[in-house]
Write a structure and sequence with these properties.
This protein is α+β, with helices and mostly antiparallel strands and 56 residues long. It is built from one helix and two strands.
Length: 56
């Protein structure tokens, strides 16, 4: 299959009760999130996931 490679960003999201969700972001979402992850912030990064598909 042709085409350009897709950007992927695997994430592990954990709440204060240690519940976790593993997710992979694709495409434009990666380019939007990465600058916020690399700016050396101390505060939590809040990400709202919409239109995702879950797997077990």
């Amino acid at each position: 299959m042709g085409g350009s490679p897709t950007n992927r960003l695997p994430l592990k999201i954990q709440n204060l009760e240690n519940n976790t969700i593993e997710a992979v972001l694709f495409g434009d979402m990666v380019e939007q999130i990465q600058p916020h992850m690399h700016e050396g912030r101390v505060d939590p990064l809040i990400v709202v996931l919409q239109c995702f598909r879950g797997h077990r």
